[in-house]
Design goal:
The complex is a heterodimer. Chain A is 50% helix and 18% strand. Chain A is α+β, with helices and mostly antiparallel strands. In chain A, helix 1 (4-13) packs across helix 10, helix 2 crosses helix 11 and helix 8 packs parallel to helix 11 (364-390). The longest helix of chain A has 37 residues, at 320-356. Chain B is α+β, with helices and mostly antiparallel strands. Chain B folds into two domains: 2-47 and 306-436, no CATH class; 63-288, no CATH class. Chain B has helices at 2-15, 17-45, 82-90, 127-131, 144-148, 158-165, 218-221, 240-245, 260-279, 295-301, 307-337, 339-347, 352-388, 400-426, 430-436, and strands at 56-61, 96-108, 117-124, 136-139, 153-157, 174-177, 180-188, 211-214, 252-256, 290-294. In chain B, strands 2-3-8-5-7-6 form a six-stranded mixed β-barrel. In chain B, helix 2 packs antiparallel against helix 11 (307-337) and helix 13 (352-388) packs antiparallel against helix 14. Chain B is elongated, with a radius of gyration of 30 Å. Classes of the chains: A alpha+beta, B alpha+beta. Chains A and B meet through helix 2 and helix 8 of A and helix 2, strand 2, helix 11 and helix 13 of B.
Chain lengths: 401, 437
């Protein structure tokens, strides 16, 4: 009833064109399903929750070149100056900026470093009691640092005795979930966990443990000092514009560098992923377009070649819908073969990427969705020329040429 | 005959404008996409110092305990400890070699004319300039005597010289690094490298340091590394002296070994040094482990070309294959429809070879057109790459090789696609077509 057999037979008579179309559909399916899968992986990575109000935060680095200066004292004044700028919610000295790609990490252990003990990788931020508020992160349990627990020193001879950690880090250290109040060791220094914070990311989104963050109340003002400021979101740009002047006004033997909003910083650090994503999406769109155009072009050609036959069929009583159906079915047959071949190729290719590169295993769902999508796209590319073919007048057949 | 074929091709293209446009666009887009990713790949993987990349060797020593893991493919740390690096640097080996680290200073002139700015600074040995082929506009590297005496001398690059001295000969003049006075001994020509191959720690495509100071200032000035410092065991390091004596890795080391014999000798030298260190009980390791890798091996080892980029190049070529299949299908249809015309030409005396060549010329013309438009599309693509990431700003461009590669790939691809249709059409039997007309 669907005239599959005669269509198939006629396809066999002009194989080459059909095979080219089939190959094209197969490769397209293989590329698009893998590309779409990698793209989805990148979208998930780029849109993950970091835990910070990224549009309210900016950071910069101050390089001080004044040897006479009491840096610890001066930075206390600078912090106060920054907090008093209208629109600023809070500001703090930090050893590293979250999401910036540069920071410090080490092992937090259940035993001091002199003894062997389980060791968990954690990024640490050294800052004062304003740290959580500056980063816009809330506590889930426990309490914040008291000012008297914050150590201010240029050397690490005295080290704090408390820390606040993220829930993820707490669970990895104490899988039973009772991290609050326990003691962990940073090298040989014991730190009592006094607070559990909401999820926040470390300096590296691509770290093996991006969720393990510990805040230690230590301010070691250095000549190369990072400062983080949180503002009202709509005032951030304006405040950032005047920050260099204000800082130099505060002390003139300074250089300000790396002034950047947290969202921009994150974007810069993940530029290669954004780039990959854009390239993949361009590739997918253009590829589907090219394949669609290819099918379109080939159908137009086939129709031109068969004008007389179509005319004859029409003259013999075939309805317009029968002509359209003929081309749709012909295309569908090629397409199905191409899709089967393409799906196998896609899975094979996914396997290859998995083995040779650090790519996650291809989800078969993506292959099926791509196959469906390519099928629909190919049918759509046939509809227009097929409708045109259906309008061929039967009188064509009766003309001599 | 060739020009006649080109003329025929042109007529043929004009006769079926829609299909011709489709084919040219298919090849152009295919080439555009392929060249975009290939250009970035080419720039990333390009040999940064072709005439001596096989003579410069990065040195790695594994001074960790057996069983200690590192993120490199063979578990050997990328950098050296201070004590090992300085030992190799000062050793009496008859080759050029240098330890170096990246640090940073505030640069100023102690006056109001130049606003103080922060600059990366490399502390290195005087061999560094010769080894890595740096050319001097004014002056020269510091002398060995100056290096031994840890004199406060500095080599600045062209850009810094323009900024501080308006491009004049600044040799003998003074600049401030933080609060210390340094005397300029040389100004180097701007260093045009895309890949910072001598120190890949903090981004492979960062700019080289604009300022150089003698390595011997490291201890007296207590230089802080602005690169990576990696420890692997607990050490209670609280002082600068403690860090110098520690087992932490933070120094880069290169040796220039021009002949195979040099490589062998240096290899033996490292082997005996590590064997000696091992017997001192510094670390527990059965047999000494170290690497000597030349520039290209080093770039491969450090994965300078990202996986993403390799995948993109692969996908782009597959994309090109789709475009080819597309063109092949269209060419088949187009050429076969022309059979009656070919029949007449054959009857008039054209042989199969001529028909075949004529059609290959026709697809080459398609390829050339597609390749040229493809370069335009690739430029658009590269512009997109530059806009997305400032990191790629210097990498996302086409050099002459790439501009010439584009039409070459396009024509080559079109000829491959055209072989089968051209062969089909040249088999045309004149008799059949002469009968029907």
């Amino acid at each position: 009833m669907l005239e599959i057999k005669p269509i198939f037979n006629s396809l066999l008579r002009s194989k080459a064109g059909a095979i080219m179309l089939l190959i094209q559909i197969a490769i397209t399916t293989a590329i698009v399903s893998n590309a779409a899968f990698i793209a989805k992986d990148r979208i998930d990575f780029l849109s993950q929750e970091t835990g910070y109000p990224e549009d309210e935060i900016f950071s910069f680095t101050t390089m001080t070149f004044d040897k006479e200066l009491d840096i610890v004292q001066k930075f206390e004044e600078t912090e106060t100056m920054l907090r008093n700028i209208p629109g600023v919610k809070n500001a703090s000295l930090f050893n590293a900026v979250p999401l910036s790609g540069s920071g410090s990490a080490g092992g937090l252990s259940l035993k001091p470093a002199t003894e062997e003990g389980p060791d968990v990788r954690a990024a640490y931020f050294l800052a004062d009691e304003n740290a959580l508020d500056t980063l816009g992160v809330n506590l889930l349990e426990g309490r914040n640092f008291r000012p008297d627990e914050v150590i201010m020193s240029a050397s690490r001879d005295v080290f704090p005795e408390v820390t606040i950690i993220t829930q993820a880090l707490g669970l990895e250290l104490f899988p039973t979930g009772d991290a609050l109040g326990k003691t962990v060791y940073f090298g040989v220094a014991p730190l009592k966990i006094i607070g559990i914070a909401e999820p926040m990311k470390s300096a590296w989104l691509k770290d093996s443990r991006p969720d393990n963050v510990s805040i230690i109340p230590f301010v070691g003002a250095s000549i190369f000092q990072k400062i983080i400021v949180r503002t009202e979101p709509e005032q951030r740009t304006a405040i950032m514009r005047q920050i260099e002047d204000l800082m130099i006004q505060d002390h003139n033997k300074r250089v300000i560098i790396g002034l950047q909003g947290m969202d921009e910083d994150k974007r810069d650090n993940n530029a290669s992923d954004i780039l990959m994503l854009r390239m993949l999406i361009t590739l997918i769109i253009v590829l589907v377009l090219i394949t669609g155009l290819g099918i379109f072009g080939l159908t137009v050609f086939n129709i031109n070649k068969r004008t007389k036959q179509i005319g004859t069929r029409r003259a013999l009583g075939a309805r317009k819908s029968a002509i359209v159906r003929y081309f749709l079915i012909e295309n569908a047959i090629i397409c199905v073969f191409g899709l089967v071949l393409g799906s196998i190729a896609a899975i094979f290719m996914g396997q290859l990427l998995l083995e040779n590169y650090s790519m996650p295993a291809l989800d078969t769902f993506y292959v099926l969705m791509t196959a469906l999508f390519v099928f629909i796209a190919s049918l759509l590319s046939v509809v227009m020329p097929a409708t045109k073919a259906a309008n061929i007048s039967p009188s064509i057949a009766t003309r001599s040429i | 005959m060739f020009f006649h074929y080109i003329d025929l091709s042109w007529r043929s293209l004009k006769r079926t404008p829609l299909v011709s446009a489709l084919m040219v666009m298919a090849i152009a887009i295919g080439i555009g996409i392929t060249m975009t990713s290939l250009s970035v790949y080419h720039m990333m993987s390009m040999d940064p110092i072709p005439h001596k990349s096989d003579q410069l060797f990065a040195v790695q020593l594994n001074t960790t305990d057996d069983g200690n893991e590192w993120w490199t493919s063979d578990n050997v740390p990328l950098q050296l400890t201070y004590k090992d690096a300085m030992y190799l640097h000062n050793a009496e080996t008859p080759v050029r070699k240098t330890a170096s680290i990246r640090t940073a200073f505030t640069v100023h002139m102690n006056n109001q004319d130049v606003k103080p700015f922060l600059s990366s600074v490399r502390a290195a040995g005087q061999d560094f300039f010769t080894m890595f082929d740096q050319h001097f506009i004014y002056g020269s590297p510091w002398s060995l005597a100056q290096e031994k005496a840890a004199d406060a001398v500095v080599v600045i690059n062209e850009e810094t010289n323009n900024k501080l001295f308006g491009g004049t000969n600044s040799v003998g003049k003074q600049i401030y690094l933080d609060d210390s006075i340094f005397t300029v001994v040389g100004v180097t020509k701007q260093w045009q490298i895309h890949t910072k191959y001598y120190d890949l720690n903090n981004g492979s495509f960062n700019a080289p340091e604009p300022i150089f100071i003698p390595l011997t200032l490291w201890e007296p000035m207590q230089l802080v590394s602005r690169g990576n410092t990696n420890g692997w065991k607990h050490e209670n390091v609280t002082t600068f002296e403690g860090q110098l004596q520690s087992e932490m890795f933070w120094v880069q080391f290169w040796a220039e070994l021009p002949t195979e014999n040099d490589v062998k000798q240096y290899h033996d030298f490292l082997f005996s040094y590590l064997t000696e260190q091992g017997t001192k009980g510094r670390y527990t390791r059965e047999k000494p482990e170290f690497n000597l890798q030349d520039v290209n091996e080093w770039m491969e080892y450090n994965k300078v070309v990202s996986e993403d980029n390799k995948i993109l190049v692969g996908l782009s070529f597959m994309f090109l294959a789709v475009c080819l299949a597309n063109i092949l299908g269209l060419l088949l249809g187009k050429f076969i429809r022309r059979a009656p015309e070919i029949g007449v030409r054959r009857a008039l005396g054209a042989n199969k070879r001529q028909i075949f060549l004529q059609h290959l010329v026709e697809v080459s013309v398609l390829g050339l057109l597609g390749g040229v438009i493809g370069i335009g599309i690739a430029q658009l693509g590269l512009w997109g790459v530059r806009v997305t990431s400032s990191q790629y700003a210097d990498l996302a461009g086409m050099d002459l090789t790439m501009v010439l590669t584009a039409p070459a790939i396009a024509i080559g691809a079109c000829i491959i696609a055209g072989l089968y249709p051209a062969w089909l059409v040249c088999k045309t039997q004149p008799a059949i077509y002469l009968k029907t007309q």
